[in-house]
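Aim 2, interim progress. The first record below pairs a target sequence with its structure tokens.
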Amino acid sequence: MKVLFCVGNVFVNEPSGVMQLAAIARRDGHEVKLAPLRQKGFPNLLKQWSPDVLAYSAMSCEIPMFKVADAQARAWAQGRRVLRVMGGPHATYFPGIVDELELDAVCLGEGDRAFPELLRRFECRESLSGIPNILVRGDAPKDLKKELIADLDALPFIDREVYYEAAPPFRALATRGFMTGRGCPYDCSYCHNHVFNEMFKGCGKTIRKRSVEHVIAEMKEVVSKAPHVRLIRMGDDTFAHTIDEWLISFLTRYKREINLPFYCLMRSNVLTDEMARLLRDAGCISIGMSVESGNERIRNTILHRGLTDKEIVDSFANAHRYGLRTYGCALVAIPGAKFSDDFDSFLFTKKLRMTVPAFSIFSPYAKTRLCEYALAHGDLPPDFEFDHHASRESALLSFSPLEKRMQVNLMYMGTLLCDLPDSWSPFIKLLLRLPLTFAYKYIGLIYQFLKIGIFVFPGVYPKNPLTRCYLLWRCFQYLAVPKRPRSS
């Protein structure tokens, strides 16, 4: 069968979940293709390729886009036998989308075992009901069987070719990403991980690691096929939670057998002096490590980060001590906070002397604790439409129009403003008040992109100037333009 995976958009970070399912489908003899819906040509692709299966992977803010695409797909599929299934965050937390779009099924959580069984039954014209993690339209959600994949080594390496066929220019980037495990043990209120952990409680271990052998083997295969790769990106939410036997073994083998610079995401409570030294010695040159809020009360009582100011300051000091370049983010427009708290986060972040500091506006994810907090305290209207929120401006009712503009200006200009001398601090609020958002967007994001490319991911952009300009434009377009649905 022909399986068409549909995503909202493609970016520098490969959609590893979809690529994993594509690898499984290809292993089982199916043809696969990836369709980014924000790019034009979806109706033509349906006509030309004529897929048997449409596999949607959607976030809530992308649902309007998927509704447009699904309407086009249903019009095309008249008289054809086509399976329409949705997975990803929205289907996991809002399985009612199966009835709203009249899909054949939705996948809640991991589809590594569920999806191939769904394809097999569809091809053999068997009932789709009863597959763990698969909810068929018309079945009762309470009867859904749930599972977590225990043995990650049993899965094939992700299918990178399906991604590069859909986004050829990204093939020239001299970096590749790898996931070494799944699951997150932390309880951050703004993230869906705590919702996922509760949903799949009792279904197996939520924190799982691939074996060192399996990860190294994939890295060797990828680098052998793409010898231009100069930097490895570890894609895990937190690459290492502690110094254990797995980490020591992996870092030792990585240095001996791969020996490329790498980037990873870390957490302040984990990045001790010893951890920073181990990472540096193995080839780590840059890390991502978020602050989220410069106010300890907000960080811990509202965001549930469980990090003291001292832990954060010490972790960045450890990174600086061992020459690790740092990239980190702070949230602004947090429910229960004021704009003065946003500015305190800016000042706190500035003092950390990150290589590339960044700022983002809180986006409400339904069913998370922080979203429930915002609804309970009147920061969001009770009828707020999560699947239509695609604005860069805060959705909260607790901030004035001027404060919202200042938050957007901080999001765009924060990286540059952090690099200004401390003597500029009294003037920064004035700069944020100015109605120059359009100019700030271009000035600030270009500055941020250049710093990320030069310091955090050095050498990954292709040497061809035309390709480099195109990729920079795609990056800017992805981050600067809100995700609005296409009408055609």
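The second target in this work package is listed in the same format:
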Amino acid sequence: MVPSLAGVTFIGYKTPDWSRGLGVGLSTWTPTIVINTKDAGTAGAGKGTPMPITLSPTLRSNLVSSFRGQGLIGTSMPIFVTALASGLRALYLQTVTNTIHTGVAVGTGVATFVPTAAVSHLVRGFTSVGMTGEGPTKMASAIASGLETTFRAMTLTQPIVGPANSSTAVGTGTGSIV
């Protein structure tokens, strides 16, 4: 996050703490996001090929809406949110899906994401670096809302690999982000 924020001149003595707190919160929240898939292919049981998480371009507008909803407005908010969205996209490109598929051994699944509530994770992350009070809580709420909305609307094509079979089948899969 620091390079993204510095890239738009959001540089201050608390920027590293803020970034670290956000990272702590996201590292505990992200694995709780459930991935569900609807699969088609050959019969059996397979494993999803790890796929990078590419956050939707709607992330920025979702963050803008949630920042406004928390009253976090001002002339620098759009620039800050742009940097935040850029940093989050770069962060999530370093994560991948981890899925198991029952019913389909080789094929493809359409993955949807079911995010859990993120705000408590982000508040704990900010608290871990000494950021407490109304401001950090509103910031955590805004970021949580924007991310949850973005993940709920996302889909991903999930390749499935396993033992080959000649029978066709449909099934479901489940997993998480690692």
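Residues 2-177 form one domain. This observation will shape the mutagenesis plan for the next reporting period.
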